[in-house]
Amino acid sequence: MSVLESKIPEGPIEKKWTKHKNEINLVNPANKRNIDIIVVGTGLAGGSAAASFAELGYNVKTFCYQDSPRRAHSIAAQGGINASKNYQGDGDSDYRLFYDTVKGGDYRSREANVYRLAEVSSNIIDQCVAQGVPFAREYGGLLDNRSFGGVLVSRTFYAKGQTGQQLLLGAYSAMNRQINRGKIQSFNRHEMMDLVLVDGKARGIIARDLVSGEIERHSAHAVVLASGGYGNVFYLSTNAMGSNVMAAWRAHKKGAFFANPCFTQIHPTCIPVSGDLQSKLTLMSESLRNDGRIWVPKHEKDAKAIREGKLKPTEIAEEDRDYYLERRYPAFGNLVPRDVASRAAKERCDEGYGVNKTGQAVYLDFKAAIERYGKEKAFTSGHKNPSKEEIIKLGEQVVESKYGNLFEMYEKITDQNPYKTPMMIFPAVHYTMGGLWVDYNLMTTIPGCYAAGEANFSDHGANRLGASALMQGLADGYFVLPYTIGDYLADDIRTGTISTETEEFVTAEKEVKERIQRLFDAKGKNPVDYYHKKLGRIMWDKCGMSRNEKELREAMEEIKELREDFWKNVRITGKAETKNAELEKAGRVADFLELGELFAKDALERNESCGGHFREEYQTEDGEALRDDENFKFVSAWEYVGNPRDAKLHKEQLEFENIELKTRSYK
Amino acid sequence: MKLKLKVWRQEDAQDKGGFKNYDVDGIDGDMSFLEMLDVLNNNLVNEGIDPVEFDHDCREGICGSCSLQINGEPHGPDRRITTCQLHMRKFKDGDEIVIEPFRATAFPVIKDLVIDRSAFDRIQHAGGYISVNTSGNTQDANSIPIDKQDADDSFYAATCIGCGACVAACKNASAMLFTSAKVSQFALLPQGKIEAHERVLEMVHQMDKEGFGNCTNTGACEIECPKGISLENIARLNREYLSASVFS
């Protein structure tokens, strides 16, 4: 018998959320003033939730490891945010956004949550515009849209290639308003080290002040974890250097189930790895696939010549290029979902058609787009017979206005001009669909502990569609949690302030301090990065874009050994009582070394291929993912019982009442 | 490449601090400046010396965490980039590189190259927002068309990453470019006009209180700004400030 109660409301899908809001408990405004909420993480989900709670009247404390809430990694999201506004009149609707998201996620997400997400999506755009978020507009003054992978409509709102930044600054400004009112206390340069449970309920956290090194106790009536994803378990990813799983993993060890850890998104268009000392990978927005065409040489000898520097991509004739996405998936072409595009790139590179020195890159080419836009621009400005140079010049201007900052970024990193020669790209770890298991109210299996945004598992199934992360973060923070948290807190109106002097807080603090001491006591010979890189290598080679039973078993063993070695041989310099970046990294890597093992175990036990999880044993004849709905139509929620490998599996069976389960096809 | 580094080391806010010399070897032109510092730090850890603390996070030029003064220039010799986007191909074998924190009274040093920029946050708290509830009960996003030019200018102002290079570049350590960018973003939009007067007065008041210097129109901030925030924003702030002072 499962202990997972999803609390999905009864009734038709389009009425569930309204019905639920009508039936859940409310807290009256006077009582809200006596209730405290802790929010960990200040990205789109955390920032928007904190501002909304404070506005409702709760007392809020926010925590972030950065020096300002505005620097949370949501800021780096580039391409856009989806909403079912149907401003383009191209047939969009709540249902279509819902359908695309469930299908895009390869039928491994919860219908009711996804429908709610689609339902509130339009409101997010209204809200952000009212806050002064400067979205891109057309000449008539109305909002512009573009298209993203896996869909057939234009529903993505954007602010050049900096949509995440603009939305986060919007949420941060809403936070500022509440900070100025005294309703939010923001603890920056603070890291959550543990969750504190009192009588089985989440009642606070232990945090470390990253400047003074002081260990602090903070209490609240509820704790919201909006601490992002765990992509950095791969070492190299598009995540920020500090992005970590600590908050979620600490909660997991205190009783919150971790769902679908193996569902990780490998994004197809990133700048390829250039050297061994690289610390980070940079994404090139999916929006580029609106206009860029992906290809490799048709002939292996050409690919080889390119790798050896004897041939330039611009010298390869049109008929000698293989636009493999257009060839394999004519209906969606270059705009297939991310998992499909990534695997297709890997397939070509594995076959020997890769184009950079390491053979681990494909081309993203804008030549056709530049010519198309140039012709159009020349025509509309009266040049009916433009020269080729004129066309290219005008075309480059149009492309510059659409993607200028991305092209600039590419050039800075690679020292190559993408207007003149195609970009080189390769897949990289970008987002984690898995996360803490939550019910319809976004509560984890610990009462009073919520998870929002990338930190939870709920909306994207086995693969997230582009421009949906921003949508989910803001939906959770602005429009879901402010309602659902009241349902729980209604029982706390007489509780009064939670004391931090209880035994639970004392013990939790002691454990945190002991853990820090253990890290120093290892007094070994290897810096933290040594372990992080090794872990990343195992994850990428054996738990990456394609997985098999043998390698997953090996990964579990290797990670376990690496973890044991870490605790014996890591070397942390400096003191615990000052700012100490090595210590911060060590705590985070220690948790990744546990999560990695659970990740591999989850991938091992899911004997099917779906979305970003591709098991070599389960594929069709032409290499497409082979899902097994009969045996794996469930969410894997893992309960911590001592060792990551011993984690206990709980299954939440997924019901599809509004969408027919089909083989996902983009052909 | 082999490089000689002269790095500012300072234990904490109380410590006087000073430069230390380090050599690093095996630096490749494709590495970023911060990856070069990673190499230095790993060497230091291996020798049992405390690594150099520096702020960094996204390493793709958008979070605004990184903040180094490199050979006297905020974010180093290249233009329109942050330190994390600076690549070692801009240097050559044998170069000496001087690395300091951003210097300003309002940005006290926390440790080594890490500074406290919370003064920027407090300027934003003072008025860097539009007072709209997050309830979602707002009007449809397309109900107020906004002139494309205004929307674009507002966007360009809003691309400020709050790194503080403008302050570090300014001989007066003025925060006018930063503050004016936020004031402009909202002043250019119909949604922001209602509180425009109050906003500019409050934000400028807080800016002065934090100990930033005055603006003398030198323009170094615009040149060093990694996002190319325009001086026009300062002109707009002055206009807004004057109008607010006269009419309130």
The tally of helices of chain B reads: 9
Strand order of the largest sheet of chain A: 5-2-1-9-17
Report the principal-axis shape of chain B: elongated
The count of DSSP E runs of length 2 or more, i.e. the number of strands of chain B, is 7
Question: Roughly what fraction of the amino acids of chain B lie in strands?
Answer: 5-15%
Shape of chain A: globular
Please tell me about this protein's structure.
- The complex is a heterodimer of chains A (667) and B (248).
- Chain A is built from 18 helices and 19 strands.
- Chain A has helices spanning 16-23, 29-32, 44-56, 94-104, 111-131, 163-180, 246-253, 300-307, 324-328, 338-350, 367-380, 388-414, 469-489, 503-521, 528-542, 549-569, 581-605, 629-632, and strands at residues 36-40, 59-63, 81-82, 156-157, 184-187, 190-198, 201-209, 215-219, 222-225, 258-259, 264-270, 293-297, 321-322, 362-365, 423-432, 435-436, 449-451, 634-639, 648-653.
- In chain A, the strands form 5 sheets. A 5-stranded parallel beta sheet of chain A has the order 5-2-1-9-17, sandwiched between helices.
- Chain A starts with 15 loop residues before the first helix and ends in a 14-residue tail after the last strand.
- In chain B, helix 2 packs antiparallel against helix 7 (196-209) and helix 3 runs antiparallel to helix 5 (176-187).
- Chain B has helices at residues 33-46, 118-125, 148-158, 165-169, 176-187, 190-193, 196-209, 220-224, 232-247, and strands at 3-9, 18-24, 68-70, 73-74, 96-101, 109-111, 114-115.
- Helix content of chain B is 36%, strand content 12%.
- Chain B has a 5-stranded mixed beta sheet with strand order 2-1-5-3-4.
- Chain B is α+β, with helices and mostly antiparallel strands.
- Chain B has 2 domains: 3-110, Beta-grasp domain (Ubiquitin-like (UB roll), Roll); 118-247, Fumarate Reductase Iron-sulfur Protein, Chain B, domain 2.
- Chains A and B meet through helix 3, helix 5, helix 6, helix 12 and helix 13 of A and helix 1, helix 2 and helix 3 of B.
- Chain B: Keywords: 2Fe-2S, 3Fe-4S, 4Fe-4S, Iron, Iron-sulfur, Metal-binding, Oxidoreductase.
- Chain B: Residues 3-105 form the 2Fe-2S ferredoxin-type domain.
- Chain B: It catalyses: a menaquinone + succinate = a menaquinol + fumarate.
- Chain B: This is Fumarate reductase iron-sulfur subunit.
- Chain B: It comes from Psychroflexus lacisalsi.
